[in-house]
Structure formats: structure tokens, C-alpha cells
């Protein structure tokens, strides 16, 4: 099979690896518009379950990813002068640039042709191939050229956020919430190497404009954020874009869905097909799982149309619970004043429960007591799992009328 992968992100690179492992005679080219070594963002997160999946499909790339990652096992929340520690699941961070290098090297070693600085635009003819994989992100040119067919829908989140780096190396996944005269502003920090961490800063629109971040230059904005988060940063600075392709930008998260993921020999992969809010840290994992699913479907179904349909059905089903968790996680932060003044242990416990469909509809302190009781009583735990989705659907249906 001749395969053209548009976009050199983790999903397409890993998909090309898996297809070459299935059949070395596949002719696969990955087209990436940026130069080699150039990428946006800083580090990405994942959990141990992803490493297990990667190892099952390609132990070589799994070992390389693990060897280039840093690990943490705790979560820490700073709220004003209060600090709470939660001992949770083991997590990992890896630099996005390093992840791409690892996957590109592995793909190249298997005979995949990776072409950098090869831009596929709206006016460019589609690559001539048996299968064209659109892994070119949320702004996918290939998807947008057929937007009516794919039925794309983008919903903007209310809060604004900015993706930054720092030389402060966090030894835990760190949350910091700071109150200002214009409202709360907070950051998520996690290490991705021995020298750097990612620091995502988020706030409500009112806080953003009240602090003047909507009008500040990048340098002035970073200086203000460094002052606000001086305690958690331990005096380290914040860094804008990892590359020289422009200033760091404040954004509203775009949740993308599509009515269908394939048309003829064109199929969507990763962020071109779906996005999930960054606060659950699942974007890279979901992209790689898409790659595993698509490669598996093509191996199991000899006809392309059947393979693409099976891939879409499998991934849509797998994404249902994750997309719900991401939606409620984003809403938790959008409604932060509802939770922020709770006692520190309760607030951090509900931060960990922010994916729950039940939490928005129950007073926070009552939910905390129910959750604590559910941890001891299996019957109550099952009832909580049963009630949450049903209450959420009922409220959503009423609000939609």
C-alpha cells in the first residue's frame, strides 16, 4: 500500500512505524511543513498505561520514549498560603520535540520517508496514494477542504490560557492558584526534562482583562506572571515560545468534533479528528491510541472502506468517557469560585474529582462527604457511578429545551 501521512506529529509518526512493522513493503511518506527539530509547545504528559500499549506494539520505540521521559508520582496544590499533597498515580513528562525526534528516528530506521518543510496547503493537490492520513492538527487543511462532508464543529472554552516553559523543574505535578484583585489565576506545572518544565497558566476572561494581560506585550505579560507565581516558581523565569516562530499566545481552548472521520481514501487522525481539554493531559495519549487503532483496523480488514469504518467506530466508542471527563474538567475550572474557598484537603479532593458528571449538581461539601463515604461503601460507590451520568443527561436535556 502507498500511504501519505500529512503532518509530522506523534500520531502520524507512530502510525507509520506500526504500518512498516506490519508490512515492510508499504511505501510510506510523512509530510511535515516545519523544519526538522521545530515544534510548538514544551512538554507533554502521559501515564504508565500508555507505555504498556506502546511496548506491546513496538518495544523499541517504547523504550526510547521511556528513556527520554521524567517521572513523578505526587500531585501538589498551592492555594494562597495553603499546600496539599496527594499521592497518586505515576505520571511521565517528555519534551514534545524529543518525542518527535524519537518517533521520527524509529520511523526512518524502518524505511519511512519523512519529508520536512513540505507544506500541504488548500491549493496543493492531495498526495497520490492509496491512503491519505490527515494528522495535521486541529487546523487540518485536509479536513477543512472538505468541511461539509466531515461536519466539523468547534466550541470555544470560556477561560483563556497560555502555554509556557520554565527552568523551574517541578518534582510533582503542581497546581498553583493565586487570588488577585481581579479574580483567581492558576497554573499547571510539570517537568519534562532534567532542565525544564511546562507551565500552563489559565484564568477567566474577567481576570485576564482586569490584569491587563490582553494588552500587555509578551515580555510584560511574562514579568507579571512571574511576579504572581514567584513562590511556586522559586524565582525561576517563564519562557514564551520554544521556537522563534512568534510570541506565546493567550488562547481559548477549541473542542473539535466531526460528524465523520473518513471520506474515500482520506482519514482523520489525532487532533484533526478530535480534541480534548488539556486539563486532563490526554491529548498525546489519544493521538497515539488513534494510530494503534487505525493500524490495527487496516491489518484486520482487507477492504479500505471497512477498515476506516471500523477504526472510526472503535475510537468514537473509546473516546466517549474521556471526552465527557474533559468537558467536566474544563467546566470545573470555569466555575473555580464554587470550590476554591473549601478547606484545602476538600478542595484538592474535588480537584481530583473534577471529571465527575455528578459534581456540578451537588453542593461541593456534600459531594465531598458522599465521595468519602463511597470510598468505604461499595453499594454507595456503585450508586454514585450510576447516578452521575443520568443526572447529567437529565439536566442537559432540560437546558436544551
Q: Can you offer a commentary on this structure?
A:
This protein has 401 residues and is of the alpha/beta class. Helices cover 42% and strands 24% of the residues. The protein has helices at 10-22, 48-57, 59-67, 96-109, 141-144, 147-150, 205-210, 218-228, 230-233, 283-300, 304-334, 344-352, 364-374, 378-400; strands at residues 2-6, 27-31, 43-47, 70-79, 82-95, 113-115, 131-134, 153-166, 173-180, 183-191, 197-203, 238-239, 251-257, 262-263, 266-268. Helix 1 runs parallel beside helix 4 (96-109), helix 2 (48-57) runs antiparallel to helix 3 (59-67) and helix 10 runs antiparallel to helix 11.
Topology:
Blueprint: E1 2-6, H1 10-22, E2 27-31, E3 43-47, H2 48-57, H3 59-67, E4 70-79, E5 82-95, H4 96-109, E6 113-115, E7 131-134, H5 141-144, H6 147-150, E8 153-166, E9 173-180, E10 183-191, E11 197-203, H7 205-210, H8 218-228, H9 230-233, E12 238-239, E13 251-257, E14 262-263, E15 266-268, H10 283-300, H11 304-334, H12 344-352, H13 364-374, H14 378-400
Helix pairs in contact: 1-4, 1-10, 2-3, 3-4, 10-11, 13-14
Amino acid at each position: 500500500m502507498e500511504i501519505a501521512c500529512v503532518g509530522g506529529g506523534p500520531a502520524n509518526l507512530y502510525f507509520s512505524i506500526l504500518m512498516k512493522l506490519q508490512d515492510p513493503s508499504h511505501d510510506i511518506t510523512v509530510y511535515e511543513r516545519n523544519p526538522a527539530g521545530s515544534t510548538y509547545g514544551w512538554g507533554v504528559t502521559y501515564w504508565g498505561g500508555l507505555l504498556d500499549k506502546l511496548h506491546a506494539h513496538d518495544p523499541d520505540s517504547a523504550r526510547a520514549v521511556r528513556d527520554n521521559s521524567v517521572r513523578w508520582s505526587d500531585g501538589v496544590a498551592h492555594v494562597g498560603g495553603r499546600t496539599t499533597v496527594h499521592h497518586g498515580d505515576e505520571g511521565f513528562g517528555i519534551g514534545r520535540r524529543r518525542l518527535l525526534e524519537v518517533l521520527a528516528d524509529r520511523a526512518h530506521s524502518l524505511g519511512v520517508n519523512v519529508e520536512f518543510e513540505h507544506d500541504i496547503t488548500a491549493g496543493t493537490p492531495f498526495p497520490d496514494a492509496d491512503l491519505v492520513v490527515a494528522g495535521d492538527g486541529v487546523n487540518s487543511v485536509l479536513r477543512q477542504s472538505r468541511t461539509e462532508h466531515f461536519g466539523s464543529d468547534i466550541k470555544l472554552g470560556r477561560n483563556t490560557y497560555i502555554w509556557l516553559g520554565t527552568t523551574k523543574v517541578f518534582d510533582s505535578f503542581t497546581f498553583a492558584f493565586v487570588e488577585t484583585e481581579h479574580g483567581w489565576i492558576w497554573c499547571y506545572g510539570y517537568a519534562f526534562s532534567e532542565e525544564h518544565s511546562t507551565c500552563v497558566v489559565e484564568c477567566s476572561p474577567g481576570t485576564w482583562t482586569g490584569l491587563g494581560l490582553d494588552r500587555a506585550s509578551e515580555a510584560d505579560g511574562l514579568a507579571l506572571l512571574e511576579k504572581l507565581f514567584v513562590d511556586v516558581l522559586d524565582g525561576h523565569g517563564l519562557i514564551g515560545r520554544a521556537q522563534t516562530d512568534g510570541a506565546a499566545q493567550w488562547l481559548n481552548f477549541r473542542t473539535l468534533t466531526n460528524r465523520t472521520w473518513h471520506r474515500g481514501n482520506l482519514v482523520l487522525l489525532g487532533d484533526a479528528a478530535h480534541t480534548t481539554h488539556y486539563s486532563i493531559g490526554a491529548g498525546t495519549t489519544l493521538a497515539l491510541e488513534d494510530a494503534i487503532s487505525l493500524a490495527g483496523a487496516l491489518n484486520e480488514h482487507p477492504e479500505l472502506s471497512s477498515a476506516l469504518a471500523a477504526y472510526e467506530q472503535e475510537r468514537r466508542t473509546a473516546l466517549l468517557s474521556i471526552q465527557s471527563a474533559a468537558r467536566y474538567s474544563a467546566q470545573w475550572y470555569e466555575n473555580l469560585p464554587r470550590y476554591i474557598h473549601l478547606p484545602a484537603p476538600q478542595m484538592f479532593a474535588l480537584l481530583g474529582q473534577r471529571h465527575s458528571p455528578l459534581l456540578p449538581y451537588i453542593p461541593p461539601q456534600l459531594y465531598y462527604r458522599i465521595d468519602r463515604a463511597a470510598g468505604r461503601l461499595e453499594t454507595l460507590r456503585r450508586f454514585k457511578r450510576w447516578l452521575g451520568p443520568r443526572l447529567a443527561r437529565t439536566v442537559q436535556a432540560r437546558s436544551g429545551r
